[in-house]
Structure formats: structure tokens, C-alpha cells
Amino acid sequence: MNNRNRGKNTGDDNLFGSEKQVSALRSAVEDMHYLLSREYPEKAASELAGNRYKLKTRQIQALRGASASETQIRNREEKQLKITDLKEKTVHLDGFNVLILLESLLSGAYIFEGLDGCYRDLSGVHGTYKRVNQTLRSVELVASFFRKAQLKKLIWIFDRPVSNSGRIKQIILEFSQENHLDWEVDLQYNPDKILAENAEILVSSDAWILDNCKYWFNLINYLIGEENLSVNLIKMSCHDS
């Protein structure tokens, strides 16, 4: 096993580690929420809020991930399921979205809770997925959820064009066979569209998918509570302490 992880970037403590920085971010999220709710485009809204609070690039990335309009928040809330709704159901899982978020969380990277109650990180695939120290533990956490929710089947969807997607598919399939889990792994060229249009119930924190899906489950929120995970968490609502 390699010694890679998805922990903090150099400089993240300076961007997110002080109450002053977090306070500015929360104010920017409140401003962006106001603008999005009045149908400002996301790019323009994030630039206005970012400029006002002199945010750096990674802070603006966190701002965009955490923000949503009032309509988006209400729409997502209406489609969110509870753990008891999942028994004997088939659930589709946004593979890289969930896996990388869990790897980041377990690595001690900053995790941001958005206005919609979803958790997001600042990592990305950038064309290549690389397994890290926390990969297996992340898959084990998904397996724990699968068993406790008593799912009928779990279908992982990964981006086919991403380098090493075939390798992570093999890792997950081998894990599921060894642990007698009814899992499928599918590689797709347009996974977002597949998830939004074909999945009855899905797991993702991708904003576009959540806006366009039928039903979704907040897996990360569930795992943090159920597995008592230690999280380097920043709540982005001004109303959270």
C-alpha cells in the first residue's frame, strides 16, 4: 500500500483554520444564497460574494459547494429519504463522489456542510483516480451502511473516462465477493445523467444530481453519526455555531 492520503492541502489551515476565515466564508454563503434565490447565475453570484469577502480560489470552491438557493434547498429536502426508507431497496451510488469524500474525511481534510445538509470536500479526480491509505476503510464504511440499511442491492457508478476507474471497479467487486455483498459496479461515460434519470434512489452530494434525481439519501451524514467518525467539519450556515 502506498502512503498517499487525501488530507489538507498546504495552506488550508490558513484558509479555513481560523474563526475569522470561517466567519467570512459563512457570510459569503449567506450572500450567495440571497443571490441564487433571486436567480443570479452561480458563477456571477460566487464572484460577487468572493470579491466582497476577498476569498481565495479554494475558499470560493468551498463557497460554491456549500451554497444553494431557497428553491434548491426545499427541493432537495422534499426528496431526501430516511434510513428506514431503504430496506430491501436498490440504491445507486455516485462512485468517485462518495469514495473521494470519505477518503478526504478519514484523512482529516476540511469537510464542509452546505445549506442543503450535504457534506462536500475540496478534492477532485482531475482525470486520474489514485487509491490512497483510506480507500479500503471507505469501502468498509459503505459496506456497514449496506448491511445496516438492509439494502437489496447497491450499484456503484464510476466515470469510465477517468484513469484507473477499471482498477477501482475490480477492487470493489473483489471486496463484495469476499464479503458476500450484492453489489454491482458500472462504468459510464455520463454517470451524472445516468444517476439522475435512471436511479430511483441514489447517494451523491453533487448539486446537479440532487436537483435532478428522484430520491436521495445523505450517506455521509448517516455515517458520521452511526460510525462516530471524527470529522474536521466546517458548518457553512451562519445559523450554526
Textual characterization of the structure:
This protein has 241 residues and is α/β, with parallel strands linked by helices. The chain has two domains: 10-67; 79-235, Rossmann fold, CATH 3.40.50. Helix content is 49%, strand content 13%. The protein has helices spanning 12-16, 19-37, 42-52, 57-66, 70-79, 95-106, 135-149, 165-178, 191-198, 207-212, 219-226, and strands at residues 90-94, 111-113, 119-120, 153-159, 183-188, 201-203, 215-216, 233-235. A five-stranded parallel beta sheet has the order 5-4-1-6-7, with helices on both faces. A three-stranded mixed beta sheet has the order 3-2-8. The longest helix has 19 residues, at 19-37. The termini are far apart. 40% of the residues are buried.
- Element-level helix/strand string: HHHHHEHEEHEHEHEHEHE
Q: What's the count of strands?
A: 8
Which range best describes the helical content: under 10%, 10-25%, 25-40%, 40-55%, 55-70% or over 70%? 40-55%
Radius of gyration: 18 Å
CATH class of the largest domain: Alpha Beta
* Shape descriptor: globular
Distinct helical segment count: 11
For this structure, the CATH topology of the largest domain is: Rossmann fold
What percentage of the residues does DSSP assign to strands (E)? Answer: 5-15%
Task: Please describe the biggest sheet, giving its number of strands, its sense, and whether it closes into a barrel.
Answer: 5 strands, parallel
User: What is the mean pLDDT?
Assistant: 95
Low-confidence stretches: none
Number of structural domains: 2
The spatial strand order of the largest sheet comes to 5-4-1-6-7
* Alpha-beta content class: alpha/beta
Looking at the overall shape, the CATH architecture of the largest domain is 3-Layer(aba) Sandwich
In whole angstroms, the N-to-C terminal distance is: 39 Å
